[in-house]
Give the backbone structure.
Amino acid sequence: MNPTNYLELLKLAAPETIVVLTALIVLAADLITMRDLELRFRLVICALISCAGCAAAIAWMLVLPEHADVHGMLVIDPLTQLVKIGVLVMAILAPGLAVARATRAVVLGLVDDEFDRWFRPW
């Protein structure tokens, strides 16, 4: 049996760790500090935080490229990193599109209709 270096595993899984920590920061920021603010403002701030976290994860993969095979359980090579970067780019686009849609609703004066559509109870 081969000994496992958990610090090395954490270093290899750093982009995923950054994304998880960013999600927790977004939840904490929204639930703790921005509870009394307007919904549109909260949406924009949370979108900015999540995009920054995804960009940090992409930067980590580009600056510190890793190549590893941890007993076949975790394989990191250029192809897996390319796929991860593609998924993170799509994750950046999702809040960006949500903010763009909210901005469009504000410009057209359809804010109440748009937010009712988003947050309407089933």
